[in-house]
Amino acid sequence: MTRPAALGRIRALSADTANVVLGPEAPRRMRQRRITWADVIKVLQRGSITEGPALDQKGCWRCRMERFAAGETVRVVVSICDDTLVVITTF
Predict the structure, then answer these.
(1) How many CB atoms lie within 10 A of CB 38?
(2) Does the pLDDT at position 70 exceed 90?
(3) Calpha distance 85→50 (Å, rounded)
């Protein structure tokens, strides 16, 4: 998958937040780093891909995204698995 195709897919899927789920590590990292659900959604909807996409071990396309807002850069690692976005971690 190309970077523009991945970005388009992420933006389309994240338009309906029901398509976005948190992986097991994400909630803990979000709390540690004071990153909100709204921050994650904004990164997915308006951020840029800084690494990837690359196939992961489960056959999903994984990439790192970031967005600068309110004086901070929020980064999200996300996997595109069929019609679902899985947030792996945030930092």
Answers:
(1) 9
(2) no
(3) 17
Using alpha carbons, select from 89, 88, 90, 83 the residue that is nearest to residue 19: 83
Region of 33 please: left (phi>0), alpha (psi -120 to 50) or beta: alpha
Asked whether 13 and 83 are in contact (CB, 8 A), the reply is yes
Burial (CB count within 10 angstroms: exposed 0-12, middle 13-18, buried 19+), residue 9: middle
Beta bridge partners of 90: 76
Nearest to 45 by CA among 76, 73, 70, 71: 76
The rounded mean pLDDT for the chain is 95
Q: What is the pLDDT of residue 71?
A: 82
DSSP 19: G
Average pLDDT over residues 58-81: 93
